[in-house]
Amino acid sequence: MVSIAVLGYGTVGSGVVEVIEKNREVIDRRAGKKIRVKYILDLRDFPGDPYEDRIVHDINVILQDPEVSVICETMGGNEPAFTYSMQALRAGKSVCTSNKELVANHGAELIRTARENSCNYLFEASVGGGIPIIRPLNVALTAERIELISGILNGTTNYILTRMAEDGSDFASSLREAQEKGYAERNPEADVEGYDACRKIAILASLMTGKTVRYEEIYTEGITKLTHEDFLYAKKLGQYIKLLASVREVDGNYYAMVAPFMIGEKNPLHSVNDVFNAIFIRGNTLGDSMYYGRGAGKLPTASAVVSDVIDCAKHGRTHILCLWEEEKLPLCSIDGASRKFFVRASQGCEEEAKELFGEIELTDAGVAGEFGFVTPLITEKEFAEKSAALSGFISRIRMEEA
Ligand code: NDP
Ligand code: HSE
Question: Prior bond to 132 cis, omega within 30?
Fold first, then answer.
């Protein structure tokens, strides 16, 4: 039997307990052993909960119990999650987590600690919720030289963007719905400002390169500046607005960014809606592949955590190799990246826009006092200079990369 402990009995942690209970038979069969929840660590008590008797408040109870061999860290945040995870790994207990903030911050160190102590630090749930993406990168795509990873990596923002595009809902009420459904972070600023997607692409970029890509170095924009009018223009142009996170290798240099993009129907990500996420990976011999599923929510995320628990149960004290070193991988500036931009500007400055940007494609979505246009291909740096010089400039959205 494998006795496990769950740290944090919130949305994901309670989901882990539920998945283990609901799928008990198949999980035990696949793990080759019985998997049972022995402890649940939380700050609160849960009177009346069927697992009330397993609740503890002191991590040492778990760390000092030799029967516990796997810990699910579903508390979130850096501390005390980092300290507890390191203590567990040093005690030879494997850790399975959904905590992408911690993985993005300390992934390489935690993996090394697991390796040094013949156990595992697994984080399938940290990117894409229930979508299997970490295991494919670590196992199925290891023969590939990966050239591009691009995806919709945040369920909350995709839910909000879908509601705004499809029902004309406003930002605040769509965010509230996402929070009610358990998709959003405790501080939803991490979702809507793009920080969560940024941490996730940093994790994927680190696995792609085997080195540490620091999320602080990734250019990041969220969705808070998007308005109802932006969606009117997108519709008029036959485009969809999505928060994309990407990392790309060009001649040995790496570029990464997170920002809202207008994408067209040819892009398979255009139809990824609501809480769903998708990750598009281009390998040099495989070509294109895509991974799709629920990017957030209690049971899908918990399912991914439990899949890691099963892996730990199957491997015992054997470390599963994961190439992610602490050496930092420098990223290149996005200044030189070329793309088209969609721009909104005040009525009356059409000629000025043409003089600055050259052959622009004008569009009218019926918004009073303004017009929209699409620039020709232009670098980020040039665009920043020219848009600063455009007197009636209102806003811009990047268009799919060339
Ligand atoms: P919740 O806030 O719902 O759950 C966290 C739980 O941990 C709460 O019960 C909290 O107690 C408890 N907790 C916090 N600090 C401590 C502590 N020091 N000791 C013991 N218990 C503690 O968060 P989620 O379940 O939504 O998220 C957990 C992690 O999973 C986060 O890292 C999140 O980013 C990640 N994640 C979440 C997904 C989702 O869809 N929700 C999807 C993928 C990943 P209290 O409430 O009393 O503070
Ligand atoms: N808040 C995150 C999201 C949870 O909405 O995608 C899943 O990581």
Answer: no
